[in-house]
Amino acid sequence: MAAHPYTRDQLVPHGLPKGADVVAEGRSLGRKITVGRTLFVEAHGVSSESEYKRRMREQGRMMFHAQYGLSNWPDSAEGLKLIYHEATARGARIDRFGICLDRAMGLPPEQRDCVPRETGLKLSDRSEWLQIGRVVPIQPHMGDHMLGSPASVQNVTYAMEAGITYVGNLSQFFLFEYPSWKDQTTRSIETLKALAIMAELRDRGAVLSSNLDDGPGSMFNDRVSVAGWAMVEKYIAEDLLGVDVSHCFGNLVTDPRLRQATLFMIDAIHGGITNGSMVVGNTMYTLDDDRNVAILASYLTFDMAAQMHRPTGHALYVTPVTEHRRIPSPEEIVQVQVMASQLEREMRKALPLFSVRESEELAATLLERGAEFRDNVLRGLAAMGVDVRDPLELLVSLKTLGGRRI
């Protein structure tokens, strides 16, 4: 057998604390958090978004996701009001919205004004967090630059207090970097503490969302490896820690069969009872908005067919056709949400014409071969001396290796 190219000393920093101790600290923090209630959960009479999704999945009902966020909260709030009222008036229902966040939100608060400004929202204080779920009866989702960042603990704490119970994004921990931040050990510890907080709050609706297209999965050349990576993340967060994990994907997946198969694979690895966060829209748009309408309709058609055949709780992320070149306006978001609402009605009539058999067969292959990938990763790390039962050692060593070396 060939010698492994890395040793434990190269992957795990000297003096790294035991993962169990970090988890205990995180769970202790979680017990002090009161999970807030949003206008959405109050309007639907549920305890959390997870309960709402479970209800919708059991009823076979479609859910829709929008993405919005300007550079400040007051303007973002006004835009959300317009989106909600206009979409509702036109017969469309938006179940959840994601906030477009500035990368600086992943840094500790005292460092956020020391890095270049980006186009997303940068929340100024806890009071703005608490307003997010109280503007419109659409459930907020916090994805980018939350869990997995140096500011993981504060971000997860504030999100839970605001009633934002679907929080991401574990995959970004392994790939994303933050301006001027170099201390990966502290970032790993903060990430594990935040995971432990979410494990503690699982029975109150806390769900970890992880976008497979935002992490090492975006560097792999095949979907088997992406499936295996989803299983690696599940092993760390769900099997070792007890976090309720929901994987999402779709940004970079243009093939309809692969979109359906990946969805079915995700549902299967989580036991067929997942309350998925969202299926992200195909963002591989052209420079021609009229052609982008066809791309939008195509991926939504097959994503809807998948949900109608096998509901997984994932909302469908409807991507405005202008997103590739600028921040979409509220009116453009309403436009595609109304289009998606009508497309669902048309799909209900056409569903008998759609078969997902080939997608299900591909999903079975992804599951079988993905399990080999996961087992190879864990066996390889163990052979290098990494304790694969210690979640902190796993986070640190996988971060050190990176997607290509994995």
Provide a descriptive summary of the structure in words.
By secondary structure, this protein is of the alpha/beta class. It is 50% helix and 7% strand. The strands form two sheets. It has a five-stranded parallel sheet with strand order 3-2-1-8-7. Strands 4-5-6 form a three-stranded parallel sheet. Helix 11 (256-269) packs across helix 14 (357-383).
Offer a few descriptive terms.
single chain, 406 residues, alpha/beta, five-stranded parallel beta sheet, three-stranded parallel beta sheet, 8 strands, 50% helix, globular
Rounded to the nearest angstrom, the radius of gyration is: 20 Å
Number of helices: 15
Helix content: 40-55%
Structural class designation: alpha/beta
Beta-strand percentage range: 5-15%
SSE string, helices as H and strands as E:
HHHHEHEHEHEHHEHEHEHEHHH
Topology:
Elements: H1 8-11, H2 19-30, H3 39-44, H4 49-59, E1 64-68, H5 73-89, E2 96-99, H6 126-131, E3 139-141, H7 152-161, E4 166-167, H8 170-175, H9 184-200, E5 207-211, H10 223-240, E6 245-248, H11 256-269, E7 278-279, H12 289-309, E8 315-317, H13 330-350, H14 357-383, H15 391-405
Parallel strand pairs: 1-2, 1-8, 2-3, 4-5, 5-6, 7-8
